[in-house]
Design a protein that fits this description.
alpha/beta; globular
């Protein structure tokens, strides 16, 4: 079993707040032949369930295949851009990113913000760009994957991960 964090193992989240769901989670973890944690923080959350032996849990960080990045050419945009990507949900902090970008956009010359991803809040974020007066500076790309994602990452001036909580985001590794 490999818990990943926000939706399945963290104490403040739905599963851990429901005694019935937490009991089922604990039973599953205790019955598992092995458990992997993507970070030390997730390791601590797993052990906090109780009854899970620490020696049963192994930390194996997320990774990316560097070969996938070697032959891909950067995306060539009309203007330099900042790249952000992820699920468009409150946890990912895109509302904070847009608010922050709106406060400094006029000092950034022609720098743009590209946001890749889909989710329940995408329309809210698009509306927010209009209210903040930055709709002409922000481009919503939708879901990008594979070579296209790598092209956008490689073409960016820099990448930003504004998450409110991110146990170990693969997108950060990909951006690095």
């Amino acid at each position: 079993i490999t818990p990943h964090g926000p939706t399945d193992i963290m104490r403040a989240e739905r599963i851990r707040r429901s005694p019935k769901l937490e009991t089922r989670l604990a039973l599953g973890l205790r019955a598992a032949a092995g458990i992997t944690a993507i970070s030390h923080n997730i390791f601590e959350e797993i052990v906090s369930i109780g009854g899970v032996s620490e020696d049963k849990v192994h930390i194996i960080p997320n990774g990316v295949n560097l070969a996938d990045f070697r032959e891909v050419e950067p995306y060539k945009a009309e203007y330099p851009y900042i790249m952000a990507m992820g699920r468009m949900v409150p946890q990912k902090g895109f509302d904070r990113l847009l608010l922050s970008f709106s406060k400094v956009a006029n000092q950034l010359g022609n720098l743009r913000l590209f946001m890749a991803g889909e989710g329940v809040n995408r329309r809210d974020y698009e509306a927010l760009t209009k209210r903040l007066g930055i709709a002409d500076r922000v481009q919503f790309l939708g879901l990008v994957q594979g070579t296209e994602k790598i092209r956008f990452l490689k073409g960016a001036r820099f990448f930003v991960c504004p998450s409110r909580f991110e146990p170990f985001g693969i997108v950060v590794l990909e951006a690095m």
